[in-house]
Design a protein that fits this description.
The structure is a single chain. The protein is of the alpha/beta class. The chain has a single domain, classed as TON_0340 (inorganic pyrophosphatase (n-terminal core), Alpha-Beta Complex), CATH 3.90.1640.20. The protein is 41% helix and 12% strand. The chain contains eleven helices and eight strands. Strands 5-4-1-6-7-8 form a six-stranded parallel β-sheet, with helices on both faces. Strands 2-3 form a two-stranded antiparallel ribbon. Strand 2 (54-55) and strand 3 form a beta hairpin. It is globular, with a radius of gyration of 17 Å.
């Protein structure tokens, strides 16, 4: 195995750190597709990144997902690739705030809650943009019964239309999924082996598969891990510093984003306080930086 592959596998393990003790990411680590996903994405041209997970109690998106999506988009833009976001009105303001923190301006397709309308929007985007890659990060995916669920087993269909069609655009498109609980879009390839490790897993675990899956303790960590892995393969630093991530989270907080576990507009993510959250970011950044010195 090459030194780059060894480092990227180390990065995958760091991103899978189960800080919230949810029992999923560490058990699924052996099936992480971080290295092949980064290898494929490096040669991409046009990437759709889908994110945004509405928290019903706050009626706004959480702060896990958009920061990781922005990190991936930033890395791809540095590599000269075209990127389009897919989200919804609950998370649109969060992506806009995050893009300002990155000094980035990218198109965003916002899916309507009506399924027929959302289907038309997805179909039009796939036809017009012709993606070489689609990345889903912390976006609800459809379970085997066709519903989208929260981690507590609540149906989200009235808030979140199915976006599973994004992961079936055709043989010429490579699909990548990042998630931390199994109910996220693209996690279907891990369902058989890991649904029993997730609370309500039989019910909520996504059935739709991606070509490559990246399990993470917090989905944002998976996004930063993918940016770091791209940097290793490209021979340049593409992952931003943890200090920059704090500025992004502060921007999202000001825009109303909440912690998906606590429901509060804090800098914590998935119930993990900033300092503990940043510790993994520092380790990811150091691993990627060390490979380029």
């Amino acid at each position: 195995m090459s030194s780059s592959a060894n480092i990227i596998n180390r990065i995958a393990a760091l991103a899978a750190h189960d800080a919230g003790r949810r029992g999923f990411s560490n058990s699924a680590l052996a099936q992480s597709g971080l290295f092949p996903a980064a290898e494929s994405l490096l040669s991409g041209e046009r990437t759709i990144i889908a994110t945004g997970f509405c928290i019903r109690a706050a009626m706004i998106g959480e702060n896990d997902g958009p920061p990781g999506a922005l990190a991936i988009a930033d890395a791809l833009c540095q590599l000269g690739q075209e990127v389009v976001f897919v989200s919804d009105h609950f998370s649109s303001g969060l992506l806009e705030a995050g893009m300002r923190a990155y000094d980035m301006r990218l198109p965003v397709t916002l899916l309507e809650r009506d399924q027929a309308t959302a289907d038309r929007e997805i179909s039009a985007l796939l036809a017009d943009f012709r993606p070489t890659h689609v990345v889903a990060i912390e976006r609800p995916g459809s379970a085997i019964d066709g519903h989208r669920y929260s981690m507590r087993g609540a149906v989200l269909d009235d808030l979140v239309p199915a976006a599973d069609a994004l992961l079936a655009p055709g043989e010429a498109t490579v699909t990548i999924a990042i998630g931390d609980g199994g109910n996220e879009l693209g996690m279907g390839g891990l369902r058989a082996d890991h649904h029993h490790r997730v609370m309500y897993g039989e019910k909520i675990f996504c059935a739709t598969r991606a070509d490559f899956v990246i399990p993470a303790g917090i989905s944002n960590w998976g996004g930063h891990a993918l940016a770091a892995a791209l940097g290793i393969l490209a021979g340049r630093r593409l992952m931003r510093t943890p200090e920059h991530e704090r500025r992004v989270l502060e921007a999202l907080q000001a825009a109303g984003a909440v912690d998906g576990c606590t429901g509060k507009a804090d800098l914590s993510v998935d119930g993990i306080a900033w300092e503990d959250y940043a510790e993994t970011l520092r380790a990811l950044h150091a691993a990627g930086r060390g490979s380029l010195t």
